[in-house]
Design goal:
The protein has 312 residues and is an all-alpha fold. The protein has helices spanning 2-12, 17-38, 48-58, 69-86, 104-124, 129-160, 165-174, 178-181, 183-196, 208-211, 222-246, 253-273, 279-311. The radius of gyration is 20 Å and the shape is globular. Keywords: Membrane, Transmembrane, Transmembrane helix.
Length: 312
């Protein structure tokens, strides 16, 4: 009986399921609150993200004329399911991953990319011009930020000589923090995460002053709520990965709160300090600089490994 109940508790309540959804809302609130305080504003109340989601879930879902009905309904569900699945391989809240295998890092990266792909398809599925422009920008930004982010997380994996997240997390806790040993990789990972999540100043795909809500212009009600929850969950997972790889690993819940909270504070500062970049600035500059910096970091790691093996 226990063997049957335990996986269900993990998937539905903690560390996945409802607890992860609630954590995503808390992180969204913290991000909005920090940015507001840095801009000398009050910011949202603590329960505002929950109220927004409940309101959206209660609203009518309107499917625009000309959009494929099945695709329109399925894409938000796919995005949320991919984000929730990715959390199974990550040491969320300082708890060991429930599922872990050699190569789960690559699977997690691909699952985290499903949100961006779903957003692009959601915009392309609509005939609205704002949605189409937003979809184009979203998919263009995907190619510019996924590769540098992947290169950034490969650095600690090479140092740990493993593609298993739990082993990389354990190795990071036993050695010098990789933010010191691999500072370029940390910078690329943090900026790449902001680009993946389309946070300011990399929010050209959903610039409300230009294209309303970008790819999600035609979404309302449940679909919009699920997409928002997917982004919140991916924010938690992304911060957890960066903290686990570059900040000495995550060994317990206190580690998780302090390290992911510190990263969120830095991201809020960056959001406040920089104005929105044009899509050509967002894509062109980072594709060249970010990817190049990531490659330089990897080459340095490989050279260090080779020299160490040769010396020994």
């Amino acid at each position: 009986m226990n063997l049957t109940i335990h996986p269900l508790i993990v998937l539905l309540f903690f560390p996945g399921g409802l607890f992860l959804l609630a954590s995503g809302l808390v992180f969204q609130w913290a991000d909005r609150k920090l940015v507001a305080r840095f801009q000398n504003r009050v910011g949202p109340r603590f329960l505002q993200p929950l109220a927004d989601v409940l309101k959206l879930l209660a609203k009518e879902e309107i499917i625009p004329e000309g959009a494929h009905r099945g695709l329109f309904v399925a894409l938000p569900i796919i995005a949320l399911a991919a984000a929730l699945t990715a959390a199974l391989y990550v040491p969320m809240f300082g708890v060991q991953p429930f599922f872990s295998f050699q190569g789960d890092l690559i699977v997690t990266i691909y699952l985290l990319s499903a949100l961006t792909i779903s957003l692009g398809l959601a915009g392309a599925n609509s005939v609205d011009r704002f949605s189409l422009v937003g979809a184009t920008r979203t998919l263009t930004q995907l190619f510019s930020y996924e590769a540098p982010f992947l290169l950034a997380v490969i650095g600690p994996a090479l140092a740990a000589q493993s593609w298993q997240i739990s082993k990389i997390n354990a190795y990071a806790g036993e050695t010098t923090w990789f933010i010191v040993a691999q500072p370029i990789g940390f910078l690329v990972a943090l900026v790449g995460l902001m680009g993946k999540l389309e946070l300011p100043p990399f929010d050209a795909p959903e610039a409300e002053t230009e294209i309303v809500a970008g790819a999600l212009t035609e979404y309302s009600g449940r679909g919009f709520a699920l997409f928002r929850l997917s982004k919140d969950i991916e924010l938690v997972i992304g911060l957890t990965l960066v903290a686990a790889f570059y900040l000495g690993g995550i060994a317990n819940p206190l580690d998780f709160v302090l390290k992911t909270g510190g990263l969120l504070l830095v991201m809020a500062l960056l959001q406040t300090a920089f104005a929105r970049l044009r899509i050509d600035q967002t894509v062109g500059l980072w594709w060249r600089v970010g990817a190049l910096m990531g490659l330089v970091q990897i080459l340095a790691i490989l050279a260090g490994i080779y020299i160490r093996q040769w010396w020994l």
